[in-house]
Write a structure and sequence with these properties.
This protein is an alpha/beta fold. It is built from 10 helices and 12 strands.
């Protein structure tokens, strides 16, 4: 059954689960390992763990926090933030991580995507694409790196096509314009990327209502939806999300 996945996102800073708006205004939410256990029990399909300051601080992902989180979950965990080498990827996979996610490192060295896919399998490699609206690029969306602090001049849709050719297994596009706003995903950006590639695309950034998840799948053509504020702050449970989608003929895993 080709079902749509519900994927809670664990943004982690200094070992703590946090949530921001537009990549700033960061609030402490709790312990990532505890949240991973709770979301696993609640029926989430996968989890994403992003060490959001690793690249800015020029360090590797906090392996001890990752290991604690891995130990508390039985569903696939994708980890991103501070990954810049095959050795770093291998270290995480050995620690029990299901997949890795790269953004800045992939832009800096696209061949790392090819090498990682060849070494570990493309299903282990997710490329995160942080985007910001830009009238200067053909798609209208620019790739941002370094935790959303640096513009690259790269067109987000063209970059998605490129990483698909390099061997990426999935794409995680996050709109900086909608992130944390709870006003809905950036549907035009999500759809533009989803329609440009044959890879699974995980909508990210802005969910605040159940309608938004439905829109991301139906109008944005996403294969999965990343959720953060909507579940971290107790607005909806994973079960409520899946019930809502199932009632609207969206296939979900029970």
């Amino acid at each position: 059954m080709d079902y749509r996945k519900i994927v809670p996102c664990l943004d982690v800073r200094n070992g703590r689960l946090v949530k921001g708006v537009h990549f700033v205004e960061i609030k402490d939410v709790g312990d990532p390992a505890e949240s991973a256990a709770a979301y696993t029990e609640a029926g989430a399909d996968e989890l994403v763990f992003l060490d959001i300051t690793a690249t800015l601080e020029n360090r590797k992902t906090m392996l001890d926090v990752v290991k604690r989180t891995v130990d508390r979950t039985t569903i696939p965990l994708t980890v991103g933030g501070g990954i810049g080498s095959l050795e770093g990827i291998e270290e995480l996979l050995i620690a029990g991580v299901g997949k890795v996610s790269m953004n800045s490192a992939a832009v800096k060295n696209p061949q790392l995507v090819r090498e990682a896919a060849r070494e570990f399998g493309r299903d282990k490699v997710t490329i995160a694409i942080d985007t910001r609206k830009s009238a200067e690029l053909p798609s209208g969306f620019e790739v941002m790196v370094a935790g959303g602090t640096k513009p690259t001049g790269l067109d987000a849709v063209q970059w998605a096509r490129e990483v698909e050719q390099l061997g990426a297994g999935a794409i995680l596009p996050t709109s900086m314009d909608t992130d944390g706003t709870q006003a809905g995903y950036d549907i035009p950006m999500t759809r533009a990327i989803a329609d440009a590639v044959k890879l699974p695309v995980i909508a990210s950034g802005g969910a605040g209502k159940l309608d938004h998840l439905y829109e991301a799948i139906v109008d944005g053509h996403a294969d999965a939806v990343l959720v953060a504020s909507i579940v971290h702050f107790g607005m909806f449970t994973i079960a409520q999300i899946k019930d809502y989608l199932a009632e609207r003929s969206i296939p979900v895993r029970r």
